[in-house]
Amino acid sequence: NSRGTASLLKDSISFTDVSASGLFEGHDLLRRGFTSVKNELLPSHPLEQTEKNFQLNQDKTNFATLRNVQGIHAPLKLQMEFRAVKQVQRLPFLHSSNIAMDILRGNDECIGFEDILNDPSQSEAMGEPHMMMEHKLGLL
């Protein structure tokens, strides 16, 4: 067999499809809060959607400007660097500031809300390291 074991593993069913945290997982009230159909359909404020997509819109504008000024190679190189930086992560139980992403975006010299009061979604989570890693991998 010339395909090897790597291609066999790629063709097999992933653990998330059959595990408890996969396709048939119930709603986790402690992590996601109460559900409401109205909250899922409509934003609570007109600016909420704009604020959620602020960084994406800003990146698109910067890429368009960069393409007009320097050509197609500049935004492609920057997007490749973004993708490489996003792949490097610490373990889930260790706090990470992701300073490389801030440097690429030019936010390393800016002081924002998350620098002073810390974004709650990025807060350091205390817990059992093995349990947190298994949850991230979808084994729990």
Automatic annotation (TrEMBL):
Keywords associated with the record: Chaperone
Similarity remark: Belongs to the POMP/UMP1 family.
Source taxon at top rank: Eukaryota
GO CC aspect terms: cytoplasm; nucleus
Protein name per UniProt: POMP protein
Gene (UniProt): Pomp
One GO process term, biological-process aspect: proteasome assembly
Species of provenance: Chaetops frenatus
Lineage per the UniProt record: Eukaryota, Metazoa, Chordata, Craniata, Vertebrata
